[in-house]
Amino acid sequence: MRPEFFVVVRSPFLWGAAILLAAMALVLSPYHLGIATQTMLYISLALAWAIVGGFAGQLSIAHNVFVAAGALLASALFLRLGLNMWLGLVICAAISALIGVFFAYLDSRFNLGHLSFALVTLAFGEVGALIVAGWDFVGGASGLSLPRDEGRFLEFEFGSGRGYFWAALVLALVYLILNYAILHSRLGFYLRTLRDNQDAAQAVGVYPFRNRAIAMAISAAMTSVAGTLYARFSNFVDPHFLASPTLSIEIILIATIGGLSTPLGPAIAAIVLVPFSELLRGSLGGQLPGLSHIIYGMLIVAVILLSPRGLVPWLATLFSRAPPERLTSHQNKMGA
Question: Which residues of the chain fall below pLDDT 70?
Fold first, then answer.
């Protein structure tokens, strides 16, 4: 493992932020704690997608299939067959990984371009939503209601709202560290090489299918695990939300707005956008329906116009600029 990974793991900023977020769970109201938990889950989903969309440069719009597998199928295995949800989590993550490898195979077999791959995955996302809506085993269009949480950890129950917040926080931290590990690994280098110039990468012995299949499998499994936790946190699995391609687009927006050049991008964007959206909907949704969506959309457009590369790269550039007076003083000294 490269030294950069250990620098990230030992980062005071990372663990300081984690401790601050954990401390917040002690003072937040149940409503705001639920928003904080949802934010952590969206961080995990955005980081999972960024492995494919950021590192490999593949615009997958079928990640709702993996969320549905983790949320709906794991819940159905628990309710219908009595399987422990921890086991269901592993089974659904493995199924999602296989589906991800299949997507990578289609890309390699038919040499799909970026737009073609996006359209193909969008089609699979729509098909997945239709299958879920008509499959009685996973609840069909009515969804599934999970039994009351009694705090049994071995049954994939985390007790109170704070328990789910800490579980979601740990998952987000693990995913953030994993993203940094992949980014600075040989796999991350190969994925970025394939993204930038596939022909040159193949010329030096980088195999597109193998590396993209590994990336898709990891991303799909991570998404499925986050979906399972999302289902247990909400206690009701809504297929119209969790199996919809709209969820994939929402995840892509968060990851892209934050910036795909660093794993901090999706994390920071989720911390900004998810609470803003939920609080705006809660304060304006009942009085002026639709206004919260308009304001949220305007915020997204503003961020894209200000920084096409993403929010975090823009902030990094902003804070790294030296003040003009310092630059002038430096130039005067050079001229002297």
Answer: 1-18, 21-25, 284-293, 319-336
Residue 50: CATH number of its domain: 1.10.3470
Q: Is 290 helix (H, G, I), strand (E, B) or coil?
A: coil
User: What's the pLDDT score for residue 299?
Assistant: 75
Closest alpha carbon to 276 in 313, 302, 249, 248: 302
Closest CA to 64 of 225, 245, 233: 245
Contact assessment for residue 58 and residue 212, using Cβ atoms and an 8 Å cutoff: yes
Q: How many domains does the chain have?
A: 1
Domain that holds residue 273: 3-335
Q: Other CB atoms closer than 10 Å to residue 12's CB: what's the count? A: 7
Non-local (6+) Cβ contacts of 295 within 8 A are 280, 284
Distances (CA, A) of 181 to 7, 174, 185, 188, 331: 11, 10, 6, 8, 40
Contact 230, 41 (CB under 8 A): yes
The predicted pLDDT at position 17 comes to: 65
Helix extents (H) in 12-84: 12-24, 30-50, 63-68, 74-81
